[in-house]
């Protein structure tokens, strides 16, 4: 490893240099990506091989046995940040293996930057072509064409009819398009949907406007309005320990135990927002159905998210936020994992037999700093663990360039949402009993209430899921989706009318609503057809 760490810069900064005549860095990146995409599908450094490590194409027992998750990705566990850190390192090493590209680094899409809030994606991720050395080439960052089919071989039952397969030649898509083509019905629906969006330039505009809407959408936090996604990224930086910072299961358990107390925001939560913004969900602060229903981008579910190149630029930003948290919390050389935390196990609730872990992990394991981050190995051939990738500069040989959250790396930097006098929340709303196994794909949980006579958006909790949850025992480890929303006060400090509360669960197929929750906040919410439960604390 070189004594001088390589620098992962913001893609927007690299784009700026390119647009102003300094083309070398972006052109080298483009050639490196073209190189790994052109490799045979079976080559260990090919994009198909590496992108497929996250989910599809499934391998091992998970290929045909629904009790196993056939991908390697860690979600909802304490290994979420470190597994994806090792994943990025593996992809970057592949890029650097392409002849002439040994100095290439993986840039991050700075999702909290002013450029992203105003414009959406850097154009390097969306433009159709590049001209390099006088030769016009397809932009390898725009999409990925499958060199071979991925076949969902899990058993199909009456309760689980989903066949999440994609053919050779399939090209990944983003909002507003759909890429769901596993069954004849899905193929027909996708054909009709995509026929509405024939103009590539207009589709890029739709995508960028949707991303901008997500990044600029406002919520009320303790009496003040703030951008929802930015506030979520910012809030996770104040997580007091790695366990709560790392994943939704750990933070959710803590929040559930004290709904009225300060809410922990894990890194995985804002990560989910951006997956769904790119992968097909409109920003929900309108109180109606999806503006573009039927969008099913690959980034929107775990099965094929890793096969869209944008995945790695998104996750590079997530790793930048991880490193920023480490610097802020003085955890650049060490941190710990609470072995008693629910995010440190694959077990579901007590008394239920444990399912299989990702790609055949020990279902009885307690996750720790020494748990292997399969399938990634170090230069000496031994397995990566979280302990091996705590310090990115000393252990992995890279650092981050200038980013939008740099100021928060200083422990004394006050978070924006704490900078003004706060208004204490009167109560908290808990939404529960949402069974992920009954919902095809990812979904959103959103809440609204009447404040000072106006319908006010309280926020959204994004649930990044899969199409095959019902058949995946590992996915059922933390099967129930819950959400907690702090309820604001009226301007005169009086409590809002609880009967004005509305909750919507926006899925790929419909919107489940509990409009005007009168009569649903007491008597145990014992309504037979209620799709979820509401409680006020």
Automatic annotation (TrEMBL):
Residues 337-360 are annotated as: Disordered. Residues 75-92, 308-319 form the Tyrosinase copper-binding domain. PROSITE patterns: TYROSINASE_1, TYROSINASE_2. InterPro entries: Di-copper_centre_dom_sf, Tyrosinase/Hemocyanin, Tyrosinase_Cu-bd. It comes from the Bacteria. The keyword Metal-binding applies. One of its GO terms (molecular function) is oxidoreductase activity. Keywords: Copper, Metal-binding. This is Tyrosinase family protein. It comes from Pseudomonas gingeri.
């Amino acid at each position: 490893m070189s004594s001088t760490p390589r620098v992962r810069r913001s893609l927007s900064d690299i784009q700026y240099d390119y647009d102003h005549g300094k083309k070398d860095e972006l052109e080298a990146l483009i050639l490196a990506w073209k190189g790994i995409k052109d490799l045979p599908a079976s080559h260990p450094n090919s994009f198909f091989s590496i992108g497929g490590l996250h989910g599809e194409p499934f391998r091992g027992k998970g290929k045909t046995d629904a009790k196993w998750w056939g991908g390697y990705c860690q979600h909802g566990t304490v290994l979420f940040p470190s597994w994806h850190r090792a994943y990025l390192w593996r992809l970057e090493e592949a890029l650097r293996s392409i002849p002439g590209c040994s100095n290439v680094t993986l840039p991050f899409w700075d999702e909290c930057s002013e450029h992203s809030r105003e414009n959406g994606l850097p154009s390097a991720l969306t433009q159709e072509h590049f001209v390099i050395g006088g030769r016009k080439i397809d932009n390898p960052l725009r999409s990925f064409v499958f060199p071979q089919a991925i076949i969902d071989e899990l058993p199909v039952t009456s309760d689980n009819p989903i066949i999440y397969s994609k053919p050779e030649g399939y090209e990944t898509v983003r909002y507003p398009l759909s890429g769901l083509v596993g069954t004849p019905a899905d193929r027909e629906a996708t054909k009709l949907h995509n026929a509405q969006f024939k103009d590539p330039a207009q589709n890029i505009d739709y995508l960028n406007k949707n991303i901008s809407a997500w990044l600029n959408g406002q919520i009320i936090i303790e009496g003040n309005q703030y951008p929802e996604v930015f506030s979520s990224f910012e809030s996770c930086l104040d997580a007091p320990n790695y366990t709560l910072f790392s994943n939704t299961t750990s933070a959710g358990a803590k929040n559930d135990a004290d709904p009225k107390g300060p809410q922990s925001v894990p890194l995985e939560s804002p990560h989910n927002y951006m997956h769904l913004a790119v992968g097909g969900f409109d920003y929900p602060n309108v109180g109606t159905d999806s503006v573009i229903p039927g969008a099913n981008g690959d980034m929107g579910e775990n099965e094929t998210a890793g096969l869209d190149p944008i995945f790695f630029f998104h996750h590079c930003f997530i790793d930048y936020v991880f490193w920023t948290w480490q610097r802020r919390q003085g955890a650049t050389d060490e941190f710990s994992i609470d072995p008693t935390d629910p995010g440190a196990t694959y077990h579901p609730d007590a008394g239920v037999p444990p399912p299989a872990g990702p790609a055949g992990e020990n279902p009885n394991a307690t996750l720790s700093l020494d748990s292997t981050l399969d399938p990634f190995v170090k230069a000496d051939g031994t397995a990566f663990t979280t302990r091996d990738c705590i310090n990115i500069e000393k252990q992995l040989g890279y650092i981050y360039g200038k980013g939008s959250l740099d100021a928060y790396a200083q422990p004394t930097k006050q978070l924006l949402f704490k900078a003004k006098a706060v208004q204490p929340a009167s109560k908290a709303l808990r939404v529960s009993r949402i069974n992920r196994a009954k919902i095809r794909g990812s979904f959103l949980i959103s809440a609204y209430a009447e404040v000072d006579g106006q319908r006010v958006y309280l926020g959204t909790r994004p649930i990044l899921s899969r199409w095959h949850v019902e058949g995946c025992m590992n996915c059922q480890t933390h099967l129930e989706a819950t959400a907690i929303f702090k309820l604001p006060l009226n301007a005169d400090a009086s409590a809002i009318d609880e009967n004005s509360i509305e909750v919507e669960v926006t899925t790929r197929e419909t919107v489940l609503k509990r409009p005007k929750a009168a009569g649903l906040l007491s008597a145990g919410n014992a309504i037979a057809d209620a799709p979820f439960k509401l409680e006020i604390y």
